Amino acid sequence: MKSRKTAILSVVFFAVLVLSSLAGALSIGQIPARNGPVTPSEATLVAQKHLHGASEHIPNFEDWKNSKLSRPVVYYFPNGTKSAYEFTVLVNGKPDGFILVAAQRYMPPILEFGKGEAPSTRIHYAQKVAMNKGYKVGNLIYYGALTYGLQIGSNKMLSLVDRKVQNVPKNIKFHFRKSTSIAENEILKPTTSRSSVFPLEDGGSDEHLVSVVRSIQGVPAWTSTDKGGASTQYPFNVGSARDPWIDWDGCAAVAASMIIAYYEPQLKDEWDREAVIDVLHHTMGIDDNTGGSVWTTQVVGIENFKEEWDYLRGWIVYKPVYHDFTATFYEYWTDMDVISEVNNNHPFMLGLENGGRASDGTGPYGNHAVTGVGYIAACSEDYSNCELVYIEIHDTWNFETHYIYNGNWIDADIIKVRAS
User: Are 171 and 189 in contact (CB under 8 A)?
Assistant: First the structure.
């Protein structure tokens, strides 16, 4: 989109963990509007109301209608103040998602919910890692976007997401849009740490915002591992053999390969991964010396992939490809383009110009192509208005999932892919 955001209204909002497969927003009863902590019994009532609302109004949550809640797990701010209660949703006695309820009255009542595993399921492994490294284990920490961890000192935590040691701020400032005015927690002071500011492009009406998380399940996260510099020419390099170009196959080929393998899951093993990437390197006309390409050849390469694969089948590759692929380039796109692609389970390519760093510090990406597989959005409680905050990406450099802030680039375009 030529999609850098202009912040007319800044809303600090608690956004969320990356493990959810779906989260959403509902109109629900709010905790009484006064300062102070929320009790566990109050939080349980809020979570129970949300269970009912989600089962009635959100697709794929129908099985929550007769579900039960676990006892709450308590999270804290770095200063020791309670921040959230986590409830595991139990369907027929088995975990089927979680709900995160605010532990302070100035916060929106529902911070997060989803069908993914509850973040606290990783606590025992994190405790073991911390103790093996000689850390003194403290509280579970949650203080905003992507900040779940185990406290291991006054200013450090072990992340439950990637199990890496992270610094935590001593002071935090949060703003929430309320029906009367912006409320600030007077205990928590301004910070220069990672921000939970979600800029909105319009002023909007006075309302609370809640987080919406969606990830497309089944999209591989990978990079290419075969080496370059071989004298063997294409197509005899296809697969795990050394390639006749540089070590790097090209970010566009790797990004597109993850989309191909999503629709063709029989191609997810290591040899076929390298084969798909090698074929896309060829069909996209990627520069053998730099790994670079342009969007026009990327689109052509995706659309010609099956024809080339079928040509090679039986003497270079052996597994079938069942789908034809079409690709459409969008220089100008909106938040809803990304949200719609993910909601309809269509992974896409995101082309970055001078891309910044992901939320976990990976990068900067520069001029780079990645695979879009999910999002975090800030939505009104009736789900009628959403603003894209983070895009979940597989960045082609490793086997991990990352989040990049929407607009953390000079420019960006997308390629939508369809399989038929």
Answer: yes
Beta-bridge partner residues of 327? 417
Q: With the CA atoms of 55, 56, 60 and 63 taken in that order, what torsion angle do they form, in degrees rounded to the nearest 10?
A: 40
Please tell me the pTM assigned to this model.
0.62
Domain boundaries, the chain: 9-215, 219-372+392-420
Q: How distant, in Å, are the alpha carbons of 89, 287, 420 from that of 63? A: 10, 50, 31
- pLDDT band (50, 70, 90) for residue 162: confident
Task: Name the region of 344 (left: φ>0; alpha: ψ -120 to 50; beta: rest).
Answer: alpha
Reported as a single tens digit per residue, the pLDDT across 223-255 is 999 999 999 999 999 999 999 999 999 999 999
Output the CATH code of domain 219-372+392-420. 3.90.70
Tokens found for residue 239:
């697969």
